[in-house]
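#lab-general

N.A. 3:47 PM
ok so I finally got the sequence cleaned up, no stray characters, all 191 residues accounted for. can someone with queue access submit it? mine expired

B.Y. 3:52 PM
send it over

N.A. 3:53 PM
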Amino acid sequence: GERDGEACVRLMVPTQKRSEAIGKDLAEAIRRNPRSGLLYRQPLLEAIQKRLATPVQGGSRYLLYVRPDKFTKLERDLGVLRSEDFIASLAALLRAQLAPTDIAGHFSGAGMMLLLERGTARDAELWAERMLDKVARYEFEIGDNKFRSSVCIGVASMPNSEGKLDATIIDSQDAVRRGRERGGNQVCTVA
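B.Y. 4:20 PM
back already:
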């Protein structure tokens, strides 16, 4: 264009869209733990329920419950505040292995829950086995402490009906309990 005989460029900045984007970013930020990047429990459950109301894109859905082994001892050794650093580090390992469509969040205490969509039950088990190995090989560095840890992962097939979420959560938690009773560092599946 031209203004006062000079060549010019007209620039328009939409203020409404920017404030909407800020509002959306803020809403997402309050749903997530800032240290771990994972969803808090209530937003996690809401996200899972919302996903269950949609058709599966391919394969099946699996609910995984991940719990660090011997966390009570670790918390005692590190201290409560430093144990939160451990949980954040563990969450970072989980997040690095997630697909964009996976849902992950804090569930109870040190436990984390994930909803994965994979082709087969074996694919979900392989994901869990890779995660188990990744955690076992990782050297955590929390404060002055360097150590290795392990987790138990319960894998439960998610039925297509929405009303089965509670039962599937209990199944995945029971699978973790079985793994812990056997010494930990295990993937346990629910048939």
